[in-house]
Amino acid sequence: MAMKPEKLAPSQLTALHALFHLYGPRVLNATDGDAGSNDARSARLAWASGIVGRELSSFNELQPHEAAQLIETMKKALGQEVNPAKRFRRRPGRDLARAYGTAGRRNATSNEIQMMDTPTSELLDELREQLGWTRERLDAFLHSKHSPILSGAIRTLGEANRVIWVLKSLLRREKQNGSTANLGGNDGATLKRAG
After folding, report:
1. Which of 62, 72, 91, 116 has its CA 20 to 30 Å from the CA of residue 192?
2. Do the Cβ atoms of 15 and 71 come closer than 8 Å?
3. φ, ψ for residue 140 (rounded to 5)?
4. In angstroms, rounded to a whole number, what is the distance separating the alpha carbons of residues 180 and 171?
5. Of 62, 67, 74, which is closest to residue 20 (Cα–Cα)?
6. What is the longest distance spanned by two Cα atoms in the chain?
């Protein structure tokens, strides 16, 4: 079964046209005549084709990641702030969503063991970065006596959830205290209720 190409979001198409309206005259000298003229359109498509690396006959043919690349290029050239592209996650199925919320709880009744998946791994990395921890620091925490998991390695969704709950708790404490003084070390008071 072949995958259907992703469709360009209307907001991206609007952003492309609005930015090019500012970008074209300043950088490409593409609008000698009317902004909707054939010369301006062909210059715009030639510019976009050169950046994307394939021939385009319309902005509607762009993939979302290609449109994001063009938007970023124009914003940088215009001196505008470049916001990181939002990654849209597919909504998990019913069983997986339930596992995300309940796996790892002491009173969980499911006998099914689910292995950690990519979105969960990305969430762990994001939380680790928000705390300012390196991977080595997280590994040291997982092998310490304060670790929420006994094995010292995150293999299942339940183990991942326990670590996520602890990292979120540490982030909440950081916001309440307004500092990260204890988060970098092995302070037992900071990690007291981790398990």
Report:
1. 116
2. yes
3. -65, -40
4. 9
5. 74
6. 72
Which structural domain, as residue segments, surrounds residue 153?
114-195
Q: What is the chain's pLDDT, residue by residue, as a tens digit (195 residues)?
A: 444 567 788 888 898 888 888 888 876 665 444 555 677 788 888 889 988 888 989 888 888 888 888 988 888 888 888 876 666 667 778 887 888 778 877 777 777 778 888 888 888 988 899 899 999 999 999 999 988 988 888 988 888 988 999 999 999 998 888 754 444 444 444 433 233
Question: 70 and 118 share a domain?
Answer: no
Contact predicate 104/158, CB 8 Å: yes
Nearest CA to 102 out of 114, 89, 84, 117 is that of 114
Residue 183 inside a domain? The answer is yes
Q: Which one of 61, 78, 95 terminates a domain?
A: 78
Burial 75-106, CB ≥16 within 10 A → b, else e:
beeeeeeeeeeeeeeeeeeeeeeebbeebbee
- The gap from C-alpha 32 to its chain's centroid, in whole angstroms, comes to 40
